[in-house]
Amino acid sequence: MLNVVCIGSGYVGSVTGAALAAVGHPTTVVDVDERKVALLRQGKSPIYEPGLESLIQALIGKTLFADTSYEPVRTADVVFIAVGTPSKKDGTADLVHIREAAAGIGRHLDPDRFTVIVNKSTVPVGTAGLVASVIERETGLKAERHFTVVSNPEFLREGYALEDVFFPDRIVIGSSHPVGLQRMRELYSPWMQRSGYERFAKHFRFEVDPSRPLPKYFETDCSSSEMIKYAANAFLAVKISYINEIARLCEALGSNVKDVAAGMGMDTRIGDKFLEVSSGWSGSCFPKDTAELLATSEKYGIELSVVRSSVQSNRQMHDYVVQKLRRQLKSMNGRTVGIWGVTFKPNTDDARQTQAAHIVRELLDLGAYVQVHDPQGMAMFREMNPDLPIRYCESAYEAADRADAVILLTHWREYGQLRWEEVAARMNRLYVLDTRNMLDSERLWQYRIQVEGLGNSQRA
Ligand code: NAD
């Protein structure tokens, strides 16, 4: 087993650290945020992610440790960097946390042992070289002689993070250093054996298909590996924007986008994933990763017009939701609008850069009162948008109170299981705009609630 340190205990670091500890690698998660480290030490999860807390509880003090100091780097074989890489104003990735993490690692490297440093954060092409040069400057040590920097992008989805980390489709490694490559193979060897796979499935009681293939283990050079992450995220953003545009056209022509997407997805060249209609993509990754890709492509004089259009189309989709509501309510002045869901997807508390913020702002500008509910994301939404004069509600029912309309933005399962009689009794005007096409419009019509979906999926 290898000694591992993971710098950063956020959505990626805490899950990665716990997964590595679960397969037996003694792993210390290091974070500058004392609150997160204290939570981890108590066996609690610093983020909301289904299944994570019980995993941490089972491992903490055994193979999983947490620290605010970089001291454990001294005895590490592998050091992951999983700190945030938010957007700067110009769209490029802000690498300040990466630089700080690299400097911290450098100050604690043992010159007598070869350490493999792994960029798990989503970072622009060339960042492995940047990390290496920060460490060289900090320490006088030489990259490739005393340490090497490997790229290993993360593809987990919040809300399904454990499943994705234990059963990934692929593991991408970017390195040309023999020790770097060898150590990563050793680190991930439990993932590459059927026995390891079955053990994860049994232990975590995931419903996994036993015939599911093992992950593909893909080794490439650092720069291609770094690009894979951006190219993949931008592609997924394009796919969502595309189906959302088709949804708008379906509405104009009377087709049903749900069936259109189903029919498209049966083609294995297209695939049935990421063809679900929504109010647009958002969250902590797609907006910043498309922005970084576009900013970098501009710097190098390469026009990524497909990605650029997808970003534009996505904004139009946010606006389209508000337009749809305006068609129903006409003047928005003084109207009360409830919002169900402020996170960019269910089963996460991550409310960074969500479409909810954009839509709420537009509604407020039009003179509406807005009351929001989310099962997990309200604290972060409030923190990210402190200026919004809106009402934060304890329940979905409260958000429907005296509402002239409710917009369902996030497909939390509980929004499909509400006591509709109570919702109807509370609402002023019984209209729900279901941007995820998840509600049963016929059933809700029994309570006189009019449900309108996107792309004619639920006809109003
Ligand atoms: P996050 O903000 O949740 O976590 C980052 C953590 O790093 C924070 O807890 C912060 O306190 C800590 N940190 C910052 N600087 C530090 C330092 N110098 N030393 C120690 N700790 C430090 O971010 P995240 O969502 O986990 O994302 C991390 C990276 O992974 C980003 O590059 C992101 O794009 C990428 N990624 C995220 C996801 C996702 O779903 N969230 C998926 C794939 C990839």
Automatic annotation (TrEMBL):
This protein's UniProt keywords: NAD, Oxidoreductase
Protein name: UDP-glucose 6-dehydrogenase
Organism: Paenibacillus thermoaerophilus
Gene3D superfamilies (UniProt xref): Cytochrome c1, transmembrane anchor, C-terminal (1.20.5.100), NAD(P)-binding Rossmann-like Domain (3.40.50.720)
Reaction catalysis annotation: UDP-alpha-D-glucose + 2 NAD(+) + H2O = UDP-alpha-D-glucuronate + 2 NADH + 3 H(+)
Similarity section: Belongs to the UDP-glucose/GDP-mannose dehydrogenase family.
Top-level enzyme category: oxidoreductase
Positions of the UDP-glucose/GDP-mannose dehydrogenase C-terminal domain: 338-441
Pathway in which the depicted protein is active: Nucleotide-sugar biosynthesis; UDP-alpha-D-glucuronate biosynthesis; UDP-alpha-D-glucuronate from UDP-alpha-D-glucose: step 1/1
PANTHER family: UDP-GLUCOSE 6-DEHYDROGENASE TUAD
UniProt EC number: 1.1.1.22
Lineage: superkingdom: Bacteria
GO MF terms held by the record: oxidoreductase activity
